[in-house]
Design goal:
Layout: E1 3-7, E2 13-18, E3 30-42, H1 54-68, E4 71-75, E5 81-86, E6 89-94, E7 99-104, E8 108-111, H2 118-128, H3 131-135, E9 139-149, E10 152-159
Parallel strand pairs: 2-4, 4-8
Antiparallel strand pairs: 1-3, 2-3, 3-9, 5-6, 6-7, 9-10
The chain binds zinc ion (ZN).
The site of zinc ion has 4 residues, from strand 3.
């Protein structure tokens, strides 16, 4: 038998500002009240009859959400964006348009992704959950959903074979 365990969006929300970058343009800075959901697929383990204990899963997701909550989210791997730190400020330049921002460093979360899309957020959180596969041989797949609001978002699924 296989089970699908859900750690849902009611528990995990974050409010953040971002802008999505293209080759020649970028969105205006704006915000969302993001929702995050995780689904774990697998059999019950033999000791506790669980797919995974909610108490073990929750801290992974909560840490991710807390790092992004009430922050300006910036991608560090986008070739069109430069981010330069001077004292406690970040000087940000969208190169194609020479569009510049200055943010207090404390208000920013720098993320090792290419763009601040829900696809990239889902991939980032999903990568943090990969250690669960080796710790729990009963887990077959992990699916992460990140939504800009209910009904608009992205699911990303990793199976044990495609880690
Ligand atoms: Zn947006």
């Amino acid at each position: 038998m296989s089970y699908r365990l859900v750690q849902g969006e009611l528990s995990f929300k974050f409010a953040a500002a971002h802008f999505v970058l293209g080759d020649t343009g970028c969105e205006r800075l704006h915000g969302h009240n993001y929702l995050v959901e995780v689904q774990i697929y697998g059999a019950q383990d033999e000791t506790k009859n669980l797919v995974i204990d909610f108490l073990e899963l929750k801290p992974f997701v909560r840490k991710f959400v807390e790092e992004l909550d009430h922050k300006i989210l910036l991608p560090t791997e986008n070739p069109h964006l430069t981010i330069t730190k001077k004292k406690n400020e970040l000087f940000v330049n969208f190169i194609p348009k020479n569009k510049k921002y200055i943010f207090p460093e404390s208000d920013v979360s720098l993320l090792a992704i290419k763009n601040t899309t829900v696809e990239e957020f889902a991939r980032l959180l999903s990568s943090k959950l990969i250690p669960l596969f080796s710790k729990h041989p009963n887990i077959d797949a992990i699916e992460v959903g990140v939504f800009e609001y209910k009904g608009q978002g992205c699911w990303m699924k990793r199976t044990r074979d495609t880690i």
